[in-house]
Design a protein that fits this description.
By secondary structure, the protein is an alpha/beta fold. Strands 1, 2, 8, 9, 10, 11, 17 and 18 form an eight-stranded mixed sheet that branches. The protein has an eight-stranded mixed sheet with strand order 5-6-4-13-14-15-12-16, sandwiched between helices. The protein has a two-stranded antiparallel ribbon with strand order 3-7. α1 packs parallel to α5 and α2 packs across α7. The structure holds glycine (GLY). Glycine (GLY) binds next to loops.
């Protein structure tokens, strides 16, 4: 067994965008930081569409989460400006807005209710007739019956975001251990680091568990602090808009078709991302014919011209879902161990606020007021809940996983 010569103030287990932003922000506060992950930046960001949809992804019963979502959305412009400066890379942040549309009278009634909820929640959105929707987006189907325009729901390219965060971390002095974490180290009743797959022992004063839906599977974590996160599969497609078809769409277009969410996210570089299924399939990340068919069928009902575009990529990832769909942020009952996980559909959106919250916790020991509703202790009495480990052969151990967002 090899012992690392130098420990760090903070060890982040998991190098997805949540782990990376935590590391970058902690390093920015003068802490020495290490990240352990076989492929930093290579997980969630490789699948996610990158919608920053605080308004159009509002759900009943998630008003507590709304405050954090809105706070993070508001930070995005300054966050990407700082990150792009620090990394010398672009993130694909695009202030394009979103149009949520209805295809039939049921959809329209659902959207009207969403509009009322948005208004009660103080969010800005505007009701448009079908004709007004098509005036904004001429590729929409003639049958579109109405829509909600949310000019504040933007997008970022999660692949570029992840790449920029890796570079920003490197430039800030974060040390990367490109290996799988075998288990948490606990000494004297507190988290003290981690053991890598090759036996290397890393020591740290504080450990942040940020391994997405695999956060509940790290060996060595005491049962009572294992986060109750489960994987929710999402299949996502990528298409290319040839220059002759541009601009195919000028903003994100989304709808609920037959009860399933479908969204089309147009990048400035001509990529069109279509997502996403939502499936309780455990650790399965197979792209299925049925998943691809349903996404294309629903997207085609919204924007018939989509069938002309080259299909360039299909992929599936896992959202880390918690019992209340909100993240778990901050200290656990095990001294020295913090969580930054459970972001479910909102990992990309919540990246800026998560970085700020975690840096605050790591430097002061306290959760800032905006994050107190998301303390892991809110699940203290529920035990492992749905995060019960899958002990079947072949079940994955902690490593980055992919997560649409
Ligand atoms: N936020 C979009 C999704 O999770 O599919």
């Amino acid at each position: 067994m090899r012992i690392s010569e130098n420990g760090s103030d903070v060890l982040v287990v998991g190098g997805g965008i949540i782990g990376l932003v935590t590391a970058w922000r902690a390093a920015g506060r003068g802490m020495s930081v290490a990240v352990a992950d076989p492929e930093p930046g290579g997980g969630a960001a490789q699948v996610a569409a990158g919608m920053l949809a605080a308004v159009t992804e509002l759900h009943y019963g998630e008003q507590m989460l709304l405050g954090l979502n809105v706070a993070s959305a508001a930070r995005y412009p300054a966050f990407v400006a700082e990150l792009e400066e620090a990394s010398g890379q672009e993130t694909g942040f695009r202030t394009c807005g979103t149009l949520a549309v209805a295809l039939d009278s049921d959809d329209r009634a659902h959207l009207r209710e969403l509009h009322a909820l948005q208004q009660r929640s103080g969010l800005e959105s505007e009701w448009l007739s079908g004709r007004e929707c098509r005036r904004l987006e001429p590729m929409l189907a003639p049958g579109v019956r109405g829509g909600l325009r949310a000019d504040g729901d933007h997008q970022v390219d999660p692949r570029r975001l992840a790449s920029a965060l890796v570079t920003a971390c490197e430039r800030a002095g974060v040390v990367f251990h490109r290996a799988r974490v075998e288990r948490l180290r606990v000494t004297g009743g507190r988290a003290a680091g981690a053991v890598l797959e090759d036996g290397t022992e890393l020591s740290a004063d504080q450990v942040v568990l940020a391994a997405g839906s695999l956060s509940g599977r790290l060996a060595g974590v005491p049962e009572e602090v294992v986060p109750p996160v489960r994987p929710v599969k999402g299949q996502v497609l990528r298409l290319a808009v040839p220059p002759a078809y541009a601009p195919f769409l000028s903003r994100t277009v989304r709808a609920v078709v037959r009860g399933s969410h479908v969204y089309l996210v147009p990048r400035a570089n001509g990529e069109l991302v279509v997502g996403a299924t939502s499936e309780e399939m455990g650790w399965d990340t197979t792209v299925t014919a049925g998943g691809v068919y349903e996404l294309l069928r629903d997207a085609h009902e919204l924007v018939p011209g989509i069938t002309e575009l080259p299909l360039t990529e299909t992929r599936a990832g896992l959202r880390p879902a918690s019992p209340d769909n909100a993240p778990l942020l901050g200290p656990t009952a095990l001294p020295g161990l913090h969580l930054a996980t459970g972001h479910h559909r909102n990992g990309v959106l919540l990246t800026p606020v998560t970085g700020d919250v975690m840096a605050h916790v790591l430097t002061t020991g306290e959760l800032p007021a905006e994050a107190r509703p998301f303390a892991p202790s809110r699940f203290a009495s529920s035990g492992r809940g749905p995060a019960s480990p899958d002990l079947s052969p072949g079940a994955p151990s902690p490593a980055p996983q992919e997560q649409p967002a």
